[in-house]
Amino acid sequence: MADDQVLIVGAGMGGLASAIDLATMGFGVTVIERAQYPGGKMRQVTIGGAPIDCGPTVFTMRWVFDELFATANAAIEDYLTLTPLRTLARHAWSERERLDLFTDPARTADAVASFSGPEEGQRFLAFCADARSIYRTLKSPFLSSSRPNPLTLAGRIGVHRCAALFGIRPFETMWGALSKYFHDPRLRQLFGRYATYAGSSPFAAPATLMLIAHVEQDGVWAIDGGMQRLAEALEQLARAKGVSFRFGEEVRRIVIKNRTARGIELTSGEHIEAGAIILNADAAALAAGTFGNAAIPAGKSLSAKDRSLSAVTWAMTAETQGLELLRHNVFFSHDYAAEFDDIFEERKLPRSPTVYICAQDRIDGASRKSPERLMMLVNAPPIGDQKHFTQEEIAACESQVFSLLERCGLLVLAQQVDVTQPSDFHLMFPATGGALYGRASHGWTASFRRPASTTRIGGLYLAGGSTHPGAGVPMAALSGRLAAMHLVSDRASIRTSVRVGMSGGISTASATTDVLRSR
């Protein structure tokens, strides 16, 4: 019957995770995806027969996926080959200014000491300790739990734990906090970059985002075959649990009856009934009417000024000379503040951008292929619904990029190139302007303003990087598990005899116990 069926709109990380959890618990699940493949923002383009990751490139917080697979009585090693990286990233400011970060904090401290002096090495260790403390404080009450408000978060952490509450540093900017750790402005720039992992400026994001530094030190893996293999593995596991997938199908509207989601209508005109729907799309798309006027109340509009970063990316096959690339590489501009002013204030491509390069044929050493596959990225304003950058504007940005790389000792001889800009991302992800991370994490309240799993419309739930707990591959997966948890909890509140559970700390009990108290 339709009441026993769940429709998931979108096969991104959140949709895939929720599909696996729900199917494991016996629900009938169908995933509708307008693309021809799973993954959402996790996408590949093929150049000269070579698939190149053009979305997320960093696999962290492995525990999220270990627990997801374990819930389905599977192991991630049976689906993926993962290689831990010893070196997190290579950073350069010029040909003579280079610094590598390692998964071993002591080794990184030695590298920092050699780069900036022994005092900075000691300050780095203090920074690591505080980043680890923030992460541990927030892992259970925030990352793995339903969206809190400031009071409920304080209650979950423990109002008696004042040191822990203030230790997450929500009222300091990341840049301000880093200035207390590092005297060398290059180190502030390097560790401030972690704010961009959440699509934000280090000059406006809270120091809480320092926790991302610990996330990386806790482990970064390369996935054999690229990040797209993760999405394919989750699809494979979901199919094994009985989930049906319909690719290349687009939803015209969500059918609402008596303020309850009861199904969808496809652009083909087909109607599909369901007892509940999980929407794995940018939450702003609901408020924009992308899924029909009746579903608008379930969404919350996001103003252009509150959007996170977009990007310009270059996927290419290329020969490289000079500086030896690692898998992850960052080349810094000399005026970091101006870069974010250009993006967030002037709403234009940065005149002097910082450049990220993922060398996808490298692990911790030389490339195994020639030419090699590169994905190059610069941050950009999320104005893809307002402006398409001209070829001249992209070429000017590209010129700045290659000049910076040459100044850092790297020559890139591109052969075949595919460019993606904010207007392209806006077409792929409607109502976003090309923003890749939902709401920017600017100000201490931003994390509490992301949409929750539940909506005003009964039976309609949200998942994905624009919802709680935030952007990024593992966070999006957690959002999917939370959406599934709330769906099951709401169903259990109607059928009070139902008791279900998930492993990994995201759990439901009876209708009136722990889950409802955590909201």
Features:
single chain, 519 residues, alpha/beta, FAD/NAD(P)-binding domain, 3 domains, 7-stranded mixed sheet, 17 helices, 21% strand, disordered C terminus
Distance between the termini: 30 Å
CATH-level-4 superfamily name of the largest domain: FAD/NAD(P)-binding domain
Largest sheet: 7 strands, mixed
What would the average pLDDT be, to the nearest integer?
A: 91
Q: How many alpha or pi helices? A: 17
Share in β-strands: 15-25%
How many strands in all? 19
Helix content: 25-40%
Q: What is the level-2 CATH architecture name of the largest domain?
A: 3-Layer(bba) Sandwich
What is this entry, summarized?
This protein has 519 residues and is an alpha/beta fold.
Q: How does this model look, in words?
A:
The protein is α/β, with parallel strands linked by helices and 519 residues long. The chain folds into three domains: 219 residues, FAD/NAD(P)-binding domain, CATH 3.50.50; 115 residues, no CATH class; 120 residues, no CATH class. It has a seven-stranded mixed β-sheet. Strands 9-2-1-13-19 form a five-stranded parallel β-sheet, with helices on one face. Helix 1 packs parallel to helix 10 and helix 2 packs parallel to helix 16. The longest helix has 26 residues. It is globular and about 65 Å long. The C terminus is likely disordered.
Task: List strands and helices in order, with pairings.
Blueprint: E1 5-9, H1 13-24, E2 28-33, E3 44-47, E4 50-53, H2 62-71, E5 82-84, E6 87-94, E7 97-102, H3 105-116, H4 118-143, H5 150-157, H6 162-167, H7 174-181, H8 185-192, H9 211-217, E8 221-223, H10 228-240, E9 244-247, E10 251-257, E11 260-266, E12 271-273, E13 276-280, H11 284-287, E14 310-322, E15 328-331, H12 336-345, E16 355-359, E17 372-380, H13 391-407, E18 410-420, H14 422-428, H15 446-449, E19 460-463, H16 473-494, H17 514-517
Parallel strand pairs: 1-2, 1-13, 2-9, 6-15, 13-19
Antiparallel strand pairs: 3-4, 5-8, 6-7, 10-11, 11-12, 14-17, 14-18, 15-16, 16-17
Helix pairs in contact: 1-10, 1-16, 2-16, 3-4, 4-9, 7-8
